[in-house]
């Protein structure tokens, strides 16, 4: 009985080895998405220097470390090393979250000549008025939440798909919005990590929050809203 | 800890917060009546024990002007503004205020300001012009005892600093219960004194601490701190003070 199970285990491992090769070839690696605009195109709201560092260094680092963590996770699962699997979760949340959040962010902003800053039209504009009274009121609330956030994080305008209403939420570090509620869909996220504004605005985060609305891409947010509330 | 006052440059006049407060009061009352304030703000902004360009080129004058002159100053002023409204918190030392407002993990609104003021005071004094190199004598002995070697300690310190997610601080701390040195990282403004640790050194790992000088190159910032800025003198004094509270060695029993 023991001998048979030993043999079976051996063939199983062999089988796994060959599938491991194919599996690692199929393991998805992520790469840095290109920006649909030049680094300097969002001046003077966000400086070109910040955009370049933010995209080429910070976002790239999240992607690199996310890929690394996923590879390590894959190996650990294969080996049955479950303590490593558990240990890797925070690195996956942090770096994966960083990749998700920044990928959304680049689409949340656009140069003025491509309608960045243009107030939302369509159903999102209407929903904002219903939920918050006016766009100004929404902006004021988001800015207050963003300024009050201690440390690093994001401030979000989200859609609660279950309750069918707009919400303002903050998340710490690189936690994606979904960590605040499984039914939350991010429409608009503003990065309030210091790397997002420090070189230009120094400690004055409120000024950064005031100015970023000049380049917010409401077209994108409206598109997500219409799709998710259909 | 009173120990870190030893390194303050008392020759620099500290702006008396009480005076500036009463000056503000007088400005606001043009009709002649002057209301006497009941609570007085009394935390002042301590200047670092070196000129603002004293840490060049590893930490620029510009960085210190913004980090100390604006951000740290802001914490002290905001704290004083909060204390003006609170009768209960009046009369606390900064250490006591940090621990009380931490409120066992459910921090009160004053915590962030007082903790960051504490952390930054400690940070400026954890650095010196011509810093770096290695600790000597008793401190080196204790580090070798608790980490194996100075190299091990340095590796642990750097690794901890670089593995911090988000904003926070990295500390060399003396653990009271364990009676040993350890490297710990804390998030945002948390300080090891809230769990009765005795800080020996700290390093600010918030992005604002290094972004102006190093952009996103955290590793270079930490390396420059270890090589050229860390004040082992300050650490030695702090450890000596800590030994008044923690028995580190075996007592020397003379055998006749």
Automatic annotation (TrEMBL), chain A:
Lineage: Eukaryota, Viridiplantae, Streptophyta, Embryophyta, Tracheophyta
Cofactor(s) of this protein: Mn(2+)
Residue intervals of the Manganese/iron superoxide dismutase C-terminal domain: 120-222
A Gene Ontology molecular function term of the record: superoxide dismutase activity
InterPro entries: Fe/Mn_Superoxide_Dismutase (IPR050265), Mn/Fe_SOD (IPR001189), Mn/Fe_SOD_BS (IPR019833), Mn/Fe_SOD_C (IPR019832), Mn/Fe_SOD_N (IPR019831), Mn/Fe_SOD_N_sf (IPR036324), SOD_C_sf (IPR036314)
Chemical reaction(s) catalysed: 2 superoxide + 2 H(+) = H2O2 + O2
Protein name according to UniProt: Superoxide dismutase
EC number: 1.15.1.1
Keywords assigned: Manganese, Metal-binding, Mitochondrion, Oxidoreductase
Ligand binding (Mn(2+)): 54, 102, 191, 195
Subunit annotation: Homotetramer.
Domain of life according to the entry: Eukaryota
């Amino acid at each position: 009985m023991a001998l048979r199970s030993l043999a079976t285990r051996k063939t199983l491992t062999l089988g796994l080895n060959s599938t491991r090769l194919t599996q690692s070839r199929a393991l998805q690696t992520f790469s840095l998405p290109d920006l649909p605009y030049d680094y300097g195109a969002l001046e003077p709201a966000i400086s070109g220097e910040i955009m370049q560092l933010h995209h080429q260094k910070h976002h790239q680092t999240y992607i690199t470390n996310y890929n690394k963590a996923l590879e390590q996770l894959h190996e650990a699962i294969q080996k049955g090393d479950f303590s490593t699997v558990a240990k890797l979760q925070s690195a996956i949340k942090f770096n994966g979250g960083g990749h998700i959040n920044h990928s959304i962010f680049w689409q949340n902003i656009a140069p003025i000549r491509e309608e960045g800053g243009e107030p939302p039209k369509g159903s999102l504009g209407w929903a904002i008025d219903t939920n918050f009274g006016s766009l100004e009121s929404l902006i004021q609330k988001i800015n207050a939440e963003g300024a009050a956030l201690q440390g690093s994080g994001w401030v979000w305008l989200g859609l609660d798909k279950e309750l069918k209403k707009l919400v303002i939420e903050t998340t710490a570090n690189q936690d994606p919005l979904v960590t605040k509620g499984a039914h939350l869909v991010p429409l608009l996220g503003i990065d309030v990590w210091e790397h997002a504004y420090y070189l230009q605005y120094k400690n004055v985060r409120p000024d950064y929050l005031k100015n970023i609305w000049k380049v917010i891409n409401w077209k994108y947010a409206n598109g997500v809203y219409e799709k998710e509330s259909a | 800890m009173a120990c870190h006052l030893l390194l303050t440059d008392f020759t620099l006049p500290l702006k008396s917060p009480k005076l500036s407060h009463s000056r503000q009061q007088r400005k606001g009352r043009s009709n002649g009546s002057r209301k006497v304030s009941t609570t007085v703000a009394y935390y002042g902004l301590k200047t670092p024990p070196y000129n603002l360009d004293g840490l060049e080129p590893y930490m620029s004058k510009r960085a210190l002007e913004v980090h100390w002159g604006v951000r740290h100053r802001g914490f002290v002023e905001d704290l004083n503004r909060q204390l003006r409204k609170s009768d209960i918190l009046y009369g606390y030392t900064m250490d006591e205020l940090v621990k009380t407002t931490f409120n066992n993990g459910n921090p009160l609104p004053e915590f962030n300001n007082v903790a960051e003021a504490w952390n930054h005071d400690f940070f400026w004094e954890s650095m010196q012009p011509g810093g770096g190199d290695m600790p000597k004598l008793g401190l080196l002995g204790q580090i070798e005892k608790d980490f194996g070697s100075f190299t091990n300690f340095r590796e642990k310190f750097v690794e901890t600093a670089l593995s911090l997610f988000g904003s926070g601080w990295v500390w060399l701390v003396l653990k009271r219960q364990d009676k040993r040195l350890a490297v710990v990282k804390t998030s945002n403004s948390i300080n090891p004194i809230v769990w009765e640790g005795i800080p020996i050194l700290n390093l600010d790992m918030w992005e604002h601490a290094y972004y102006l000088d190093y952009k996103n190159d955290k590793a270079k910032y930490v390396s420059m701190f270890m090589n050229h800025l860390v004040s082992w003198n300050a650490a030695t004094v702090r450890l000596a003070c800590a030994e008044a509270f923690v028995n580190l060695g075996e007592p020397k029993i003379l055998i006749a």
